[in-house]
Amino acid sequence: MDLFASAAQQRVRALREEIARHDHAYYVLDAPTIPDAEYDRLFRELQALEVEHPDLRTPDSPTQRVGGKPLAQFPPVRHRVPMLSIRTETDTEASGAQAFDARVRRELGLGEGDPDVEYAVELKFDGLAINLRYEHGVLVQAATRGDGETGEDVSSNVRTMRCVPLRLKGEAPEVIEIRGEVYMRRDDFEGLNRRQAEAGEKTFVNPRNAAAGSIRQLDPAIAAKRPLSFFAYGLGETVGWQMPATHGEVLDAIAAFGLPVCEHRRVVRGATGLADFHADIAGLRDSLPFDIDGVVYKVNSLELQRQLGFVTREPRWAVAHKYPAQEALTVLRGIEVQVGRTGALTPVARLEPVFVGGVTVTNATLHNQDEIDRKDVRIGDWVIVRRAGDVIPEVVAPVIERRQGDLPRFRLLEQFPTCPVCGSHVVRGEDEAVARCTGGLFCPAQRKQALLHFAGRRAMDIEGLGDKLVDQLVDAAIVKTPVDLYRLGVLALANLERMGEKSAQNLLAAIERSRSTTLARFIFALGIRNVGEATARDLARHFGSLDALLAADAEALQQVEDVGPIVARSIVEFFAEPHNREVIEQLRAAGVHWPEGAPAPAAGGALAGKTFVLTGTLPTLSRDEAKALIEAQGGKVAGSVSKKTTYVVAGAEAGSKLTKAQELGLDVLDEDGLRELLSKTDTNS
Ligand code: IVH
């Protein structure tokens, strides 16, 4: 081999080791060691070297994780050591643990005076069992359990899982088979289902089905996009390995080889140790990031395991001790809607009470109308209800086979044309999944949100009116709509928690100051959907007065630059709601005022018609200051670069916006350039 090739070979080896180390830190230890960009750079360097030197490409290279072609079917794999299942203790109380310990003691011939048996205790993961075969440290095969004797070769899919090392760390034996569970984290499951639904693909009922479906996916390129995880819990065949004396040490050794082993494991003694673990994990279950359906107890000594042996296909030395199920069947009695803080109407299932995930559930979310349609859930159906982790119970799916006759469908907009909380009218945008109450200023469900927004720094700027205070004011029914703020007295305020007379005076002064505002701030403060600060300012400039804005129809609104049909519709809907108009009139009557002018000419200011994008940090001007200067001369500041952008003003550490501007060949200014432009137009105008 020539010198040059061996240098490449050394670099390839170093890169693989480094990438494997980062994968282990990120996917196994959950403690990332380098920024993504740096990782990507290492990865690309390795890829380039392998393209240049194809003979250096090996199956344990991280570049070879996704590469397999779609399969027609999975080849069968005969397990060298059968994959057994464990007996399940269905008594979910502490007595379940005592029964197992008593059985083990009896089988071992232990009497009352003999010491406690030592157990390794761990979680029972809710996924599917996989056997990983490593020969001389390299992953050569991954197989499902199948019937325990013969499984399926799912190597190309398992290889895409970056928490599964392609090469073991440290001294590897000739052969070692590591067994464990492939599962999906709850957050990954929800993300996957969201993406599936958006793409119009089928969604999964629970994380276990999602994991099983993904592992049995014939196209490894699709499997690679499925967020799968793995925990090791045991061994299959081993050759040339010095087996430790206990199961606990086996797990330690597996972790040292670089595989994920769950941290929630212990070695305990006797029935009390088992029951304590069962109880501790029960308390933790909801906060775990993945589903478990119980815990597993294993006699720790491998010698005692051998003595105990098996009955049929189950070892006498292990048992799964269950928890109450997280899914249950019940009947959907009706559907009501709940109004959220932002006015979103969520359909809520009224259920025949059912015990699931440790509590009795009577309500569960149905998310939105599209979800109801997609799942075809109807009132009167038998449904699967799921309550896992801290998440709100949800209706997963109807059991169509149990449906009797023609059950009515739920139509949110027909059944709830008006908000069940405030009676304002309900709308749903064409491209939106969610239906909303339009009574933003008036609706009790949206009160807190609306008040906080109204008082915000960029809106009416009422200093000191934060969320804690809003909570108190609304909960005590002192404030219902923004108008009530202008009717507050010191007495009502001073009695609130953490509010002395001084702070009450300060708040009242801030409220008083806010009476005198600008039209733009006032429009923004109303909290109209899709109307941000910039749009509020455009509207104020264009219409000049509130009455002109109130009188505008969708067509007139779309004359305003940057107001399209969606924004126009939001504005029309908001002002069409009489409750909102009432609050606006009351605010004016309470003395909230601003200078009103004539509608601005379309081209006011020397920078009119010019759109700026600010990126990076300018040497002396803050972003708000630069924006104010540009807007003072009629220019517009937009958030993203497009063909419509006139100038990009770039400061230090400008990122992708600058790159995009260069790609589009736009004019790029620095702060000096901007100042020059401003001064020029100043004198010209
Ligand atoms: S040990 C001989 N440990 O439960 C014992 N299994 O019915 C073999 N499982 O197919 C299994 N968590 O998929 C073991 N900590 C754990 C487990 C576990 C989940 C699954 C596994 C197996 C089934 C047993």
TrEMBL record:
Biological process according to GO = DNA repair; DNA replication
What are the catalytic residues? 124 (n6-amp-lysine intermediate)
Q: What is its EC number?
A: 6.5.1.2
Read off the InterPro entries from this record: BRCT_dom (IPR001357), BRCT_dom_sf (IPR036420), DisA/LigA_HHH (IPR041663), DNA_ligase (IPR001679), DNA_ligase_AS (IPR018239), DNA_ligase_CS (IPR033136), DNAligase_adenylation (IPR013839), DNAligase_N (IPR013840)
Tell me which residues bind Zn(2+): 419, 422, 443
Cofactor(s) the protein requires to work? Mg(2+); Mn(2+)
Q: Which CDD domains match?
A: LIGANc
Described by its record, this protein's role is as follows:
DNA ligase that catalyzes the formation of phosphodiester linkages between 5'-phosphoryl and 3'-hydroxyl groups in double-stranded DNA using NAD as a coenzyme and as the energy source for the reaction. It is essential for DNA replication and repair of damaged DNA.
Please name the NCBIfam families in this protein's record: dnlj, PRK07956.1
The family classification in the record reads: Belongs to the NAD-dependent DNA ligase family. LigA subfamily.
The protein's name in its UniProt record: DNA ligase
Q: Which lineage ranks, top first, belong to the organism behind this chain?
A: Bacteria, Pseudomonadati, Pseudomonadota, Betaproteobacteria, Rhodocyclales
Which gene holds the coding sequence for this protein? ligA
